[in-house]
Amino acid sequence: MIWFLILLLVLAPPAIGGEMIFEMADRSGDDFGEGSLVYPTHISFAPYKDLFDLTHFTATVDGEYLLLDLVFGEITNPWKAPEGFFHQHILVFIGTETDTGTKHYEPLGLVFNEPYAYVVRIAPWSLSTLRNYEGQVLAQITVGTIDAQTIRAYIPLEHITKPTRSWRYAVLVGGYDAFGRDLFREVLARNTDWEFGGGGSFPFVDILAPSFGKEKQQDQLRQGLFYLQDSRQGPRTYGLLAVAVTLLLAGFVAGAFVLYRRYGFPFRFRLKLRRREHNKKGSVSRWN
Fold first, then answer.
1. Going by C-beta distance under 8 Å and a sequence separation of 6 or more, which residues neighbour residue 243?
2. What pTM was estimated for this model as a whole?
3. Going by C-beta distance under 8 Å and a sequence separation of 6 or more, which residues neighbour residue 247?
């Protein structure tokens, strides 16, 4: 039981106050872009995995802020950026209840299934901003690490409409590059010291997406159509309850296997045969 509780604590997102209005888990180990992306070779990108692997995203209204929490497999800061991270560069597109907005993000040629009203840039070196769909900067925002795996962005509520549970989000993760297009690190056919390899049309290593179906990461990146995810659609939201049920089932199966190996199953199942079958030679011994 102790190991079970410890595992739940490890898998749980950071505890915060306020009202959580959106939560979605993302598949671990899918920091491969369209499917074949590999990390740059420079030592600063060690361990060459997990740095861009988004595993959990939440949006919480707390006090005067909308808090966006992004959990990664690992966060390092080799160049000592003041935010506590250096590699990650994230765009969060937010769709509200109204149709006000646009489906296009011109700097990277992105197309969305629904209009977005706001876009949040999360990047090191004081480059994080809140903009509207027309590209106008509404505010410079504060971002930073709150633990070894979590980046938090603070969006002042005074600059946005009142957040609700019906808001939708697209979270796109790439590498920060001060000289890259829209500040993103390039993805080439082959990786170099400073560029990703594996090819692709977009500079994204991971995106918030379900693991299956038409909205899975590989399909979105290959087709160039990005989806604003809706937390009200149950299959896309994964909580601790699902983890608990899975672990309990696994524990039950493991316990049954151990008992079987040690004691076997001393139960004999007898079949009640029809009378005419008992008259056949060998039928009773064969079935009983």
1. 7, 8, 11
2. 0.78
3. 4, 7
